[in-house]
Amino acid sequence: MYLAHTRPDLAYALSVVSQFMHNPGEQHMNAVMRILRYLKSTPAKGILFTKSAHSQGINVYTDADWAGAIDDRRSTSGYFTFVGGNLVTWRSKKQNVVARSSAEAEFRGMALGICEALWLKLLLTDLGYPP
Q1: Rounded to 5 degrees, what are φ and ψ at 44?
Q2: Which residues of the chain have pLDDT under 70?
Q3: How far apart are CA 2 and CA 75, in angstroms?
């Protein structure tokens, strides 16, 4: 999972493959090999953090896809948080329950994003950075 945090271009592929860690099939192993070949061909890619005088706050973007999982019809929520214009956290996760509407799925996704923003705000305040 270290790769998903340091390489956002791999986050989706790793999240799909990691769902089958305990019982991988041949197609899952082929996907892992493709990921490893991609890593080998792009060693210089990474995340660059810059200091921005214009954007000092915390910005959170959320989204959800309603009943997107074909096998169990659960929705997937995701969020990205930026501090000072730099991406610091992101997450994509299947929701625990089946949402009855797209609005419900979006609401659950927003709730996760707001929890992350509040946690970041408290962390930054404890570190002496006033967001």
Answers
A1: -90, -5
A2: 1-8, 46-49, 52-55, 131
A3: 24
Q: What is the three-class DSSP state of 70? A: coil
Helix (H) or strand (E) holding 56: none
Taking the C-alpha atoms of residue 125 and residue 7, their distance in angstroms, rounded to an integer, is 27
H-helix segments, 26-101: 26-41
**pTM for this structure?**
0.60
What is d(CA 78, CA 73) in angstroms, rounded to the nearest whole number?
Answer: 16
19-46: burial string, b at 16+ Cβ within 10 Å, e else: eeeeeeeeebeebbeebeeeeeeeeeee
Burial-class residue 6 by CB neighbours within 10 Å (0-12, 13-18, 19+): exposed
